[in-house]
Amino acid sequence: MSASGFTRRLIALTRKEIRQMLRDRSNLIVGLLLPAILILLFGYGLSFDVKDARVAIVLEDSSPTARQAVAGLQGSPYLAPRWSNSMAEAERMIRAGETDAILRVPGEFSRRLAAGNAELQLLLNGVDSNTASAIETYVTAAIAIPIQQQTDRAGNKPAGTASVVITQRMWFNEVGESTWYLVPGLIVLVMTLIGAFLTSLLIAREWERGTLESLFVTPVRPLELVLSKLAPYLVIGGIDLVLCLLAAKYLFEVPMRGSLWIIIGASMLYLLVSLSLGLLISGTTRNQFAASQMALLTSFMPAMMLSGFVFDLRNVPVVIQIISKLLPATHFMGLIKTLFMAGDYWPDIVRDCTILAVYAVVLIALTHRTLKKTLE
């Protein structure tokens, strides 16, 4: 075997493989687009930092001393303080998710500070225990410096001795268990996986096997075909949902403060969205391999990285925040965690369920459109 013959054959085979690779767009997507998306997701979307944490300040003591004590919060890059007129208003804000913590300055603060035994109350939204712990650290540090300065000027305590005690309470997650935060989010990932990923193969499989053509001569309508594809996987998704709820309740002992029927209804609505997305991908690509990769890129990975499953989305760049708001998983993630940890907060329930319903209708309509040209 001559070296020149080997070289010619190698070059000819390489050219053939290059042309075949360029014709197969699914390979290019996996080889080039997937790594780029992973880099962007992990580089910009993954952040465990806490920035601009919202802290509602209830100032029941309006003296200059009390205002000076909380002035350090306004200079912290990690905190975004806002004034609240009363504890009732602040509690409404934390229940509605409009603030992450409440710092209450009691009416006798100035008098007790002069006596050396002042106290502040810090209420934390414990749905995300990691974020709550970080906010507690930032608030404590922001208060320590001005309090120490006042104490040193007053001269009633030796320098370096604290005169203010911060009493901390954790709302919605009293024990600070990260499991309480993660397990409800796992329901979102399970619904996304069995929804978009499995159904993304259905229509594409029939196109590849040629079985879809047999329906062309029947009176079957596109909408009937779409609904028939969705029905079995809605049943499977319902079974998986029951397993998730049983595990959350009895295995991980996560509190379920919201209505069980609302949790089930919202979860099934999101499952319908995921199934519809998978069918749309399947009907558009008509190739099982390409459909599975597209489902992974457009549903499961964004649901895991950009829905707020692991970290607070407010800590990522604005562009990533905008993209995350376009994902159905983001709305369901916030809703399911609220239902588990805080209970039935109807403004969030109505808003997020309406958004999910719109997504379901739009995706089913688009899937119907991809099949309409073929069946009619």
Describe the structure.
- This protein has about 375 residues and is α/β, with parallel strands linked by helices.
- Helix content is about 65%, strand content about 10%.
- The protein has 14 helices and five strands.
- It has helices spanning about 5-25, 25-45, 65-70, 85-95, 110-115, 130-155, 180-200, 200-210, 220-250, 260-285, 290-305, 320-325, 330-340, 345-375; strands at about 55-60, 80-85, 100-105, 120-125, 165-170.
- The chain has a five-stranded mixed beta sheet, sandwiched between helices.
- Strand 4 (about 120-125), helix 6 (about 130-155) and strand 5 form a beta-alpha-beta unit.
- It is elongated and about 90 Å long.
- Residues about 155-160 have low confidence and may be disordered.
Main traits of this protein?
alpha/beta; 9% strand; five-stranded mixed beta sheet; 14 helices; 376 residues
**C-alpha geometry:** elongated
- Share in helix: 55-70%
**Number of helices, counting only DSSP H or I runs of 4 residues or more:** 14
The succession of helices and strands, N to C, reads HHEHEHEHEHEHHHHHHHH
Total beta strand runs: 5
Q: What does the main sheet amount to? A: 5 strands, mixed
